[in-house]
Specification:
The chain is about 40% helix and about 20% strand. It has 21 helices and 18 strands. Strand 7, helix 8 and strand 8 form a beta-alpha-beta unit. Bound molecules: zinc ion.
Length: about 550
Amino acid sequence: MILDVILDPILDLILDPILDRRRVTEAHMPRSTNQPRSESTRNPANITRRKLLAGAGAGAAALLLEQNGVRAQPSQARAIVFSHATVVTPDAVLEDAAVAVQADRIAAIGPTDSILRTYANAEIYEGRGKALVPGLINCHAHLAATLERGFNEDFGFPNSARLAVRPASLLQGEEGALMISVGALEAIRTGTTTIVENSAGIGRAAAALAQTGLRCVFAESARDSENVAGPMSPEGLAKSEAPKFSAKLRDEGLQRINDLFTAWHGAKQGRVSVFPAAALAETTSPELLRAVRAFAEAHDLGYTIHLSQSRAEVDFMVRHHGLRPPAFLDKHGFLGPRLFAAHCRYVDDADIALLGRSRTIVSHQAAMAANRGVIPPIPALRAAGCPIANGTDNNTNDLFEAMRVALLTERIRRDDPIPGLRPQPEDALEDATSGGARAVGQAASLGSLEVGKKADLLVVDTLRAHLVPAGRIVSAWIHNGQPSDIETVMIDGQFVMRNRKILTVDEDRIVAEADRVGRRIWKQVQAAGAIAIPRRPRSR
Ligand SMILES: [Zn+2]
């Protein structure tokens, strides 16, 4: 789904990234309980929506934790050691092991006793009954689409329900950024540490998203078709004409990419990066394809596009360009190992060969694909040479669930002689972690618990009725785990959630605001016309 339509009417939330850098540093700093409380903490009712999204009120969460005798954040100078834990590394699952984190990096992994001897002054995070796993990497999200939860999942793609009024058109002021913040909170709680937000106009919500503490890739997308604005539908295909491309639209999109890159790439001590994106095969000219790739190469970035996500898209490309979407991209030099193409649901053998030969990465949104009634040919893409990463797409931002659906649907799609043997949960975890790290161009620093890598990790409470006994913790967790098992999320060496408390933004207020806005908007949508739900005939 393309979000220029969703984001257009909203937001003037472009905050100075330098000012914002100072603010996040403050939010991450341990505070003394003697410090005067800020105005917003003293009088929460006075928090404006802008202040709310910028993290006001999160300091209160940090204070509460400190009052219980626990530091909210590790200090730069002092290491933190997660002790006596089960540690999931790429090569082995270690028992009674410890992970030492110094500043933003994993400094050591080993037997608890020896790590504690080496880091005698470290703060201890007691890990008995806990598992440490690498944070998940979501390579394809449209966070603002949280607005359409409970609607957009059930009408095919593109959405075939004809609403009298588009919900996104009813967002006001900073409500788009609010939807992005609530989606980001869901992502954190479900184990995501890195997220690729794919839309047009990310600058308007960039500060709010960065404030959540997530490691972000802003994939700012451009299109230059004048007469195709979004994903092709069967009706759109029936009345379609040859695409007309606009140099003005192209220049505007490339300017947005360049502006966002200048303002945000490398911000938050490198926690934010900016990639260029072409929105869709059906809205992109050869010139724009070449420009997006050239920008990525000039700045050593990845880049992305939606690819082969519907039959209507494939038919449109064949009708008007004489080529299926992957062949069109190949002809104009767009395929390659920097590209992570989202979806690849409707690809034939020749498409798969082209994608594999070019080592194009495929971002697989298994749960959204299943929603749309399709299982992409991931086994064939993988066999052809495409690295696989995972994403959520819209409405949900729960990559943990998407990873589980990826495992289950790939088993169905493979139809092996012994069905249910491959992929294994360890393989699914690899796609959702190191596969994602490769897609975002950070394989050397993200994607696994290894010494020298960034401290992006989850603490999973394994003393739960659905996780004990566990023959293999990775298998038990992926098959049976629940998001609420995740008690702590560390990103870049900072606690973004600790003991199930979000520390970067005021979660309760953001959720309450999002609920209020959502109720208002859906009431307006329903007042404009009933939503026809194509249910089966009811038995009586
Ligand atoms: Zn998408």
